[in-house]
Amino acid sequence: MKRDNDRQASIVLAVIGIPLVIWLALLIAPSVKGGLPEILPKLLTVFNDPYASGITQNVDDLLQSHTARTMLANSEFIIMLNQASTDRLELAKLLNISDLQMSYITNVGAGQGLLKVGSSLVPFVNKFPRNTELYKLMTTKFGEV
User: N or C: less crowded end of the chain, CB within 10 Å?
Assistant: First the structure.
């Protein structure tokens, strides 16, 4: 039974995750200096080990660990959403983010932020239509469930 659940979870993750990674690559490719050819090798790395990822809401606490700090600094792909002021300062130092780039993770709404892909930082705004079944499945807002 557990194997069936693991298999189903892997299939769902692949069906959702792989198109999402491809979509993000196509979205940011025009903004990256070398375009899609520069991004493609990094994408292949993601596909080789798609489970080597993490998520956190408070990077200030995370960055207290030397190991975690090194892992974040060496990450090829980071999605940064709205960040608290102390978290923004730590991220700016660690990832060399300019003041202008920091404005994309300062007091912004849902679906907005900054992507780090390799050495490139790309702002994004992703407004998702709320009147769809997919939105109802993905929302993390308790009042909308």
Answer: N
